[in-house]
Design goal:
By secondary structure, this protein is α/β, with parallel strands linked by helices. It has 11 helices and 14 strands.
Protein backbone atom coordinates (compact mmCIF):
# COMPACT_ATOMS: atom_id res chain seq x y z
CA UNK A 1 0.00 0.00 0.00
CA UNK A 2 1.44 3.33 -1.05
CA UNK A 3 2.52 5.55 1.80
CA UNK A 4 1.07 8.68 0.14
CA UNK A 5 -2.50 7.39 0.18
CA UNK A 6 -4.95 9.43 2.22
CA UNK A 7 -6.08 7.96 5.53
CA UNK A 8 -9.82 7.32 5.74
CA UNK A 9 -9.90 6.00 9.33
CA UNK A 10 -7.29 6.67 11.98
CA UNK A 11 -7.60 5.03 15.39
CA UNK A 12 -5.04 6.21 17.93
CA UNK A 13 -4.41 4.47 21.27
CA UNK A 14 -8.05 3.46 21.75
CA UNK A 15 -9.10 1.93 25.07
CA UNK A 16 -12.56 0.63 25.95
CA UNK A 17 -13.31 -1.06 29.27
CA UNK A 18 -16.37 -2.82 30.62
CA UNK A 19 -15.59 -2.64 34.34
CA UNK A 20 -12.65 -5.06 34.75
CA UNK A 21 -12.76 -6.30 31.15
CA UNK A 22 -10.52 -4.47 28.69
CA UNK A 23 -12.35 -4.88 25.39
CA UNK A 24 -10.03 -2.59 23.40
CA UNK A 25 -6.47 -2.38 24.65
CA UNK A 26 -4.50 0.68 23.43
CA UNK A 27 -5.34 -0.11 19.82
CA UNK A 28 -4.02 1.96 16.92
CA UNK A 29 -4.93 1.45 13.28
CA UNK A 30 -4.98 3.25 9.93
CA UNK A 31 -7.26 2.42 6.99
CA UNK A 32 -6.54 4.06 3.65
CA UNK A 33 -9.05 5.64 1.31
CA UNK A 34 -10.23 3.37 -1.48
CA UNK A 35 -9.18 0.06 0.04
CA UNK A 36 -11.09 -2.96 1.28
CA UNK A 37 -9.75 -3.54 4.77
CA UNK A 38 -10.43 -6.80 6.58
CA UNK A 39 -10.92 -7.10 10.33
CA UNK A 40 -10.38 -10.69 11.50
CA UNK A 41 -10.49 -12.15 14.96
CA UNK A 42 -12.05 -14.84 17.13
CA UNK A 43 -15.33 -14.16 18.88
CA UNK A 44 -14.65 -11.75 21.70
CA UNK A 45 -11.56 -10.31 20.04
CA UNK A 46 -13.00 -6.79 20.03
CA UNK A 47 -14.09 -6.37 16.39
CA UNK A 48 -17.65 -5.22 17.12
CA UNK A 49 -16.53 -2.99 19.99
CA UNK A 50 -13.91 -1.42 17.74
CA UNK A 51 -16.42 -0.71 14.96
CA UNK A 52 -18.98 0.72 17.38
CA UNK A 53 -16.27 2.90 18.92
CA UNK A 54 -15.11 4.16 15.52
CA UNK A 55 -18.72 5.09 14.71
CA UNK A 56 -19.18 6.81 18.11
CA UNK A 57 -21.96 4.39 18.98
CA UNK A 58 -19.96 3.52 22.09
CA UNK A 59 -18.22 5.86 24.48
CA UNK A 60 -14.62 4.76 24.92
CA UNK A 61 -12.26 5.49 27.80
CA UNK A 62 -9.18 6.75 25.99
CA UNK A 63 -7.83 7.55 22.55
CA UNK A 64 -9.02 9.33 19.42
CA UNK A 65 -10.76 8.41 16.18
CA UNK A 66 -10.49 10.47 12.99
CA UNK A 67 -12.47 9.86 9.82
CA UNK A 68 -11.35 11.63 6.64
CA UNK A 69 -9.11 13.83 8.78
CA UNK A 70 -11.88 14.97 11.14
CA UNK A 71 -12.38 13.96 14.73
CA UNK A 72 -15.27 11.52 15.06
CA UNK A 73 -17.78 12.17 17.83
CA UNK A 74 -21.50 11.48 18.44
CA UNK A 75 -22.50 14.91 17.09
CA UNK A 76 -20.38 14.71 13.91
CA UNK A 77 -23.46 14.53 11.71
CA UNK A 78 -21.64 15.67 8.59
CA UNK A 79 -19.25 12.74 8.90
CA UNK A 80 -22.03 10.29 9.68
CA UNK A 81 -23.74 11.17 6.39
CA UNK A 82 -20.63 9.86 4.63
CA UNK A 83 -20.74 6.49 6.43
CA UNK A 84 -22.76 3.36 5.72
CA UNK A 85 -23.21 0.48 8.16
CA UNK A 86 -24.43 -2.97 7.12
CA UNK A 87 -24.79 -4.92 10.39
CA UNK A 88 -24.54 -8.68 10.69
CA UNK A 89 -28.20 -9.06 11.60
CA UNK A 90 -30.56 -7.53 9.01
CA UNK A 91 -32.18 -4.38 10.40
CA UNK A 92 -35.17 -3.79 8.16
CA UNK A 93 -38.81 -3.03 8.82
CA UNK A 94 -41.30 -5.83 8.23
CA UNK A 95 -44.19 -3.44 7.59
CA UNK A 96 -42.30 -1.86 4.67
CA UNK A 97 -41.68 -3.38 1.26
CA UNK A 98 -38.21 -3.86 -0.21
CA UNK A 99 -38.58 -0.51 -1.97
CA UNK A 100 -39.99 1.13 1.15
CA UNK A 101 -37.12 -0.06 3.34
CA UNK A 102 -34.43 1.21 0.99
CA UNK A 103 -36.28 4.50 0.56
CA UNK A 104 -36.61 4.90 4.32
CA UNK A 105 -32.93 4.33 5.10
CA UNK A 106 -31.80 6.47 2.18
CA UNK A 107 -34.18 9.19 3.39
CA UNK A 108 -32.28 9.44 6.67
CA UNK A 109 -29.53 11.14 4.67
CA UNK A 110 -31.09 12.34 1.39
CA UNK A 111 -34.11 14.64 1.73
CA UNK A 112 -34.60 15.60 -1.91
CA UNK A 113 -37.24 13.22 -3.29
CA UNK A 114 -36.01 13.12 -6.88
CA UNK A 115 -32.42 12.49 -5.83
CA UNK A 116 -33.52 9.86 -3.34
CA UNK A 117 -35.67 8.06 -5.91
CA UNK A 118 -32.70 7.80 -8.28
CA UNK A 119 -30.46 6.48 -5.51
CA UNK A 120 -33.05 3.93 -4.35
CA UNK A 121 -33.50 2.62 -7.88
CA UNK A 122 -29.73 2.37 -8.28
CA UNK A 123 -29.42 0.44 -4.99
CA UNK A 124 -32.17 -1.96 -6.07
CA UNK A 125 -30.35 -2.61 -9.34
CA UNK A 126 -27.04 -2.95 -7.52
CA UNK A 127 -28.39 -5.60 -5.12
CA UNK A 128 -30.34 -7.46 -7.80
CA UNK A 129 -33.71 -6.85 -6.15
CA UNK A 130 -35.68 -5.59 -9.16
CA UNK A 131 -38.09 -8.54 -9.08
CA UNK A 132 -38.79 -8.16 -5.36
CA UNK A 133 -39.49 -4.46 -4.79
CA UNK A 134 -43.08 -5.07 -3.62
CA UNK A 135 -42.14 -7.95 -1.30
CA UNK A 136 -42.09 -7.60 2.46
CA UNK A 137 -38.92 -8.88 4.20
CA UNK A 138 -40.68 -12.00 5.58
CA UNK A 139 -41.25 -13.19 2.00
CA UNK A 140 -37.55 -13.03 1.10
CA UNK A 141 -35.02 -15.84 1.32
CA UNK A 142 -32.05 -15.41 3.66
CA UNK A 143 -29.82 -14.41 0.77
CA UNK A 144 -32.26 -11.84 -0.58
CA UNK A 145 -32.76 -10.44 2.92
CA UNK A 146 -29.03 -9.85 3.24
CA UNK A 147 -28.97 -8.20 -0.16
CA UNK A 148 -31.77 -5.92 1.04
CA UNK A 149 -29.72 -5.18 4.17
CA UNK A 150 -26.78 -4.23 1.96
CA UNK A 151 -28.92 -2.02 -0.29
CA UNK A 152 -30.31 -0.16 2.74
CA UNK A 153 -26.80 0.53 4.05
CA UNK A 154 -25.28 1.84 0.82
CA UNK A 155 -28.18 3.57 -0.98
CA UNK A 156 -27.06 7.06 0.12
CA UNK A 157 -23.63 6.56 -1.54
CA UNK A 158 -21.43 6.62 1.57
CA UNK A 159 -17.68 7.15 1.17
CA UNK A 160 -16.94 4.77 4.07
CA UNK A 161 -18.83 1.48 4.46
CA UNK A 162 -18.70 -1.02 7.33
CA UNK A 163 -19.79 -4.53 6.31
CA UNK A 164 -20.18 -6.92 9.24
CA UNK A 165 -20.44 -10.57 8.14
CA UNK A 166 -22.54 -9.73 5.05
CA UNK A 167 -22.52 -13.28 3.61
CA UNK A 168 -23.34 -15.38 6.69
CA UNK A 169 -25.74 -18.23 5.85
CA UNK A 170 -26.60 -17.09 2.33
CA UNK A 171 -27.04 -19.11 -0.84
CA UNK A 172 -24.11 -19.23 -3.33
CA UNK A 173 -25.85 -16.95 -5.82
CA UNK A 174 -26.46 -14.23 -3.24
CA UNK A 175 -22.98 -14.63 -1.84
CA UNK A 176 -21.40 -14.10 -5.25
CA UNK A 177 -23.69 -11.13 -5.84
CA UNK A 178 -22.62 -9.55 -2.55
CA UNK A 179 -18.91 -10.18 -3.14
CA UNK A 180 -19.09 -8.69 -6.63
CA UNK A 181 -21.05 -5.79 -5.17
CA UNK A 182 -18.31 -5.12 -2.62
CA UNK A 183 -15.74 -4.96 -5.43
CA UNK A 184 -17.99 -2.58 -7.35
CA UNK A 185 -18.33 -0.31 -4.32
CA UNK A 186 -14.55 -0.08 -4.03
CA UNK A 187 -14.29 0.59 -7.79
CA UNK A 188 -16.72 3.49 -7.31
CA UNK A 189 -14.38 5.00 -4.71
CA UNK A 190 -15.78 3.78 -1.41
CA UNK A 191 -13.54 2.68 1.45
CA UNK A 192 -14.77 -0.59 2.94
CA UNK A 193 -14.15 -2.19 6.33
CA UNK A 194 -15.05 -5.86 6.06
CA UNK A 195 -15.47 -8.48 8.78
CA UNK A 196 -16.04 -12.13 7.96
CA UNK A 197 -15.48 -15.67 9.21
CA UNK A 198 -14.78 -16.88 5.68
CA UNK A 199 -11.04 -16.71 5.11
CA UNK A 200 -11.35 -17.14 1.35
CA UNK A 201 -13.39 -13.92 1.19
CA UNK A 202 -10.54 -12.05 2.84
CA UNK A 203 -8.04 -13.41 0.34
CA UNK A 204 -10.34 -12.56 -2.60
CA UNK A 205 -11.44 -9.10 -1.48
CA UNK A 206 -9.15 -7.42 1.00
CA UNK A 207 -6.23 -5.19 0.05
CA UNK A 208 -4.99 -5.32 3.65
CA UNK A 209 -6.21 -6.78 6.91
CA UNK A 210 -5.63 -6.78 10.64
CA UNK A 211 -5.88 -9.78 12.93
CA UNK A 212 -7.27 -8.83 16.33
CA UNK A 213 -7.34 -10.73 19.58
CA UNK A 214 -8.07 -9.64 23.14
CA UNK A 215 -8.65 -6.08 22.02
CA UNK A 216 -5.26 -5.64 20.33
CA UNK A 217 -3.99 -5.67 16.76
CA UNK A 218 -1.65 -8.63 16.46
CA UNK A 219 -0.58 -8.05 12.87
CA UNK A 220 -1.49 -5.87 9.87
CA UNK A 221 -0.61 -6.23 6.20
CA UNK A 222 -1.61 -7.89 2.96
CA UNK A 223 -2.46 -11.59 3.05
CA UNK A 224 0.92 -12.38 1.46
CA UNK A 225 2.80 -10.19 3.93
CA UNK A 226 1.12 -11.77 6.93
CA UNK A 227 1.76 -15.29 5.64
CA UNK A 228 5.41 -14.42 5.04
CA UNK A 229 5.76 -13.27 8.68
CA UNK A 230 4.78 -16.72 9.90
CA UNK A 231 7.26 -19.25 11.26
CA UNK A 232 5.23 -22.07 9.71
CA UNK A 233 6.95 -24.43 7.30
CA UNK A 234 6.30 -25.15 3.65
CA UNK A 235 5.57 -28.87 3.28
CA UNK A 236 7.16 -30.42 0.18
CA UNK A 237 6.67 -34.00 -0.93
CA UNK A 238 8.47 -35.65 -3.85
CA UNK A 239 8.34 -39.14 -5.30
CA UNK A 240 11.90 -39.87 -6.35
CA UNK A 241 13.92 -43.09 -6.31
CA UNK A 242 17.63 -43.72 -5.99
CA UNK A 243 18.50 -40.65 -3.99
CA UNK A 244 22.29 -40.65 -3.37
CA UNK A 245 23.31 -40.45 0.26
CA UNK A 246 25.44 -37.34 -0.30
CA UNK A 247 22.40 -35.43 -1.64
CA UNK A 248 20.28 -36.54 1.30
CA UNK A 249 23.07 -35.44 3.63
CA UNK A 250 23.33 -32.06 1.86
CA UNK A 251 19.59 -31.53 2.30
CA UNK A 252 19.72 -32.69 5.91
CA UNK A 253 22.54 -30.25 6.69
CA UNK A 254 20.72 -27.28 5.10
CA UNK A 255 19.75 -24.83 7.84
CA UNK A 256 16.64 -23.81 5.87
CA UNK A 257 15.21 -27.32 6.21
CA UNK A 258 13.55 -28.05 9.54
CA UNK A 259 12.64 -31.68 8.83
CA UNK A 260 13.46 -34.32 6.22
CA UNK A 261 12.41 -37.93 5.77
CA UNK A 262 13.16 -40.34 2.89
CA UNK A 263 11.55 -43.77 2.72
CA UNK A 264 10.53 -46.01 -0.21
CA UNK A 265 11.06 -43.29 -2.79
CA UNK A 266 9.05 -40.71 -0.85
CA UNK A 267 10.97 -37.59 0.14
CA UNK A 268 9.23 -35.32 2.65
CA UNK A 269 10.80 -31.96 3.45
CA UNK A 270 9.69 -29.08 5.63
CA UNK A 271 11.38 -25.79 4.75
CA UNK A 272 11.41 -22.57 6.72
CA UNK A 273 9.73 -19.45 5.33
CA UNK A 274 12.10 -17.55 3.05
CA UNK A 275 14.49 -20.50 2.87
CA UNK A 276 15.52 -22.85 0.08
CA UNK A 277 11.93 -23.62 -0.96
CA UNK A 278 10.67 -25.95 -3.65
CA UNK A 279 12.52 -24.26 -6.52
CA UNK A 280 15.82 -24.53 -4.66
CA UNK A 281 15.30 -28.22 -4.02
CA UNK A 282 14.36 -28.90 -7.64
CA UNK A 283 17.43 -26.99 -8.80
CA UNK A 284 19.65 -29.09 -6.53
CA UNK A 285 18.13 -32.29 -7.91
CA UNK A 286 18.53 -31.09 -11.50
CA UNK A 287 22.21 -30.30 -10.91
CA UNK A 288 22.64 -33.94 -9.91
CA UNK A 289 20.61 -35.35 -12.82
CA UNK A 290 17.74 -36.39 -10.55
CA UNK A 291 14.15 -36.01 -11.75
CA UNK A 292 11.21 -36.55 -9.39
CA UNK A 293 8.21 -38.53 -10.64
CA UNK A 294 5.77 -36.24 -8.81
CA UNK A 295 5.99 -33.10 -6.73
CA UNK A 296 3.55 -31.45 -4.34
CA UNK A 297 3.94 -28.39 -2.16
CA UNK A 298 1.70 -26.91 0.50
CA UNK A 299 2.57 -23.45 1.70
CA UNK A 300 1.02 -21.98 4.86
CA UNK A 301 -2.40 -20.45 4.27
CA UNK A 302 -3.88 -17.37 5.88
CA UNK A 303 -6.03 -19.68 7.98
CA UNK A 304 -2.90 -21.55 9.15
CA UNK A 305 -1.32 -18.27 10.19
CA UNK A 306 -4.51 -17.13 11.92
CA UNK A 307 -4.50 -20.35 13.92
CA UNK A 308 -0.81 -19.92 14.74
CA UNK A 309 -1.32 -16.34 15.96
CA UNK A 310 -4.60 -16.67 17.86
CA UNK A 311 -4.67 -20.38 18.71
CA UNK A 312 -8.13 -20.74 17.20
CA UNK A 313 -9.35 -21.35 13.66
CA UNK A 314 -11.53 -18.62 12.25
CA UNK A 315 -14.12 -21.09 10.98
CA UNK A 316 -14.69 -22.31 14.54
CA UNK A 317 -16.34 -18.98 15.32
CA UNK A 318 -19.27 -19.30 12.93
Amino acid sequence: MKKNREVAVKVDNLVKRYKELVAIDHLSLEIYEGEIFGLLGPNGSGKSTLINSILSLLKYDQGEVEIFGQKMKPTAYGLKQQIGLVPQEPTVYEELTVYGNIDYFCGLYIKDKAERQALVEEAIEFAGLNDFIKFNPSKLSGGLLRRLNLACGIAHKPKLIFLDEPTVAVDPQSRNRILEGVKDLRAQGSTIVYTTHYMEEVEILCDRLSILDKGSVLVTGTSAEIISMSALDENIELEIYGMPNHILQELNDNSDISHMDYQDGRLIIKTKQGGIGLLGILHLLEENDLTPISVSSKKPTLNDVFLEITGKELKDNV
